[in-house]
Amino acid sequence: MDGSGITLASLTTLISGMKSAMTWIWSLFARFIDTITSNDLLLYPVLLFIVIGAISLVIGIIRKFGLKSRRS
After folding, report:
1. pLDDT, tens digit (0-9, with 9 covering 90-100), for 9-52
2. Taking the alpha carbons of 36, 39, 44, 45 in that order, is the dihedral positive or negative?
3. What's the rounded Cα separation, in Å, for the pair 54 and 22?
4. How far apart are CA 40 and CA 70, in angstroms?
5. CA–CA gap between residue 49 and residue 45 (Å, rounded)
6. Contact 28, 34 (CB under 8 A)
7. Dihedral sign of CA atoms 38, 40, 45, 49 in order
8. Is the pTM of this model over 0.90?
9. What is the largest CA-CA distance in the chain?
10. Residue 48: CA atoms inside 13 Å, Cβ hemisphere, count?
């Protein structure tokens, strides 16, 4: 096969496509954050989830280092 049916895109076309894809992903993320922050029924549970997740992450990291509670 001589490869005459294959055409490669130029590097500028690929980079511009990646830029537009990243712009689209960031716009979805921004819209998601705006929806959460504009609605109090969503904001407080999400903030509580973030705080609980951060605390459990810290506890998990501390336990990986071998530190345990007094009860264990």
Report:
1. 788 888 999 999 999 999 999 999 999 999 999 999 999 999 99
2. negative
3. 27
4. 39
5. 6
6. no
7. positive
8. no
9. 72
10. 6
Contact at 8 Å (CB) between 36 and 46?
A: yes
Residue with tokens 């989830």: 49
**What angle (nearest 5°) sits at the alpha carbon of residue 58, between those of residues 52 and 51?**
20
Q: What is the 3-state secondary structure (H, E, C) of 1-67?
A: CCCCCCCCCCHHHHHHHHHHHHHHHHHHHHHHHHHHHHCHHHHHHHHHHHHHHHHHHHHHHHHHCCC
Tell me which amino acid residue 9 is.
A
Task: Tokens 């990243």: give the residue.
Answer: 22
At position 16, the amino acid (one-letter code) is: S
Q: Given the structure tokens 């903030």, which residue do they identify?
A: 47
